[in-house]
Amino acid sequence: MIKVLKSGFYTTIQDLGRTGYQEYGVPYSGAMDQQALKLANALLGNNEDMAVLEMTMVGPRLEFQCATLICITGANMQPKINNKMVGLYKLHQVHTGDVLSFSASKSGFRSYLAVKGGIQTDQVMCSRSLYSGVTKDATVKKSEELPIEFFEGGTNNAHAALKINTDYFNSKTLVVNEGPEFQLLSKAQQIKLINFEFHVSSNNNRMAYQLEESFENALEPIITAPVLPGTVQLTPSGKLIILMRDCQTTGGYPRVLQLNSTSINFLSQKSTGQSCLFKLLNSK
């Protein structure tokens, strides 16, 4: 077990999410930065979709009640085991009674803690990802105990550490494709959309990132249509909303762009005030 001594700002359990339930209105959910999740699991020799802790902005304080092997990826929240700083993208053996703590992030916005064998909470609709209305809780709570497997095999292997380029935390570029309603924009609007530097507003979370600047919009709302993580919607007030992992499955705002999976990972590591620039792939 892992006992949660402090829960952090917004800590959840995530895997690669739920698929096959969107027709019932169930969001995909899953790790915001799936690259970071997959790397953590790969270093541990886990299956890539095993559940991890996703930590946002400020991490938790955790006590291990059995030995296991851990790996931390994503944002640098200055992790410490028993008050001793430890590195990211490395394997660390922890023992019964060890305390893992995190602080505010120095770079990036979301960090991931994986354990050998994954976090073994109950599956709901084939996923352990937390989501309000689907699972009992939306976040990890103080004093909660998270089931994990005992492991005391050490870190003596050739793949115990990995040097990762985290420049994507600061990259402005978000690669996109045209959305279904992109061609309804005027040419001037299309050019501005692709060449203008936007900034993340304070209205950002696992459901969606709203951009700060307004964009001229004369488009009519559309008949409710499918949306998915990475869909960029244009509201009647001219705000751009980028849907993220916990987004709804349908929407009535014009879908002007679509981020690819890598760009969703990139955006998930951005916080309020940081900039982004769309790079269009499939211009017609």
Automatic annotation (TrEMBL):
Q: Which SMART domains match?
A: AHS2
What positions does the domain Carboxyltransferase occupy?
23-284
Signal peptide (UniProt feature, chain positions) = none
Has the keyword Cell membrane been applied to this entry?
Answer: no
- GO molecular function per UniProt: ATP binding; hydrolase activity; transferase activity
Keywords per UniProt: ATP-binding, Hydrolase, Nucleotide-binding, Transferase
How is this protein named in the record?
A: Biotin-dependent carboxyltransferase family protein
Species this chain originates from: Pseudotamlana haliotis
**Entry superkingdom:** Bacteria
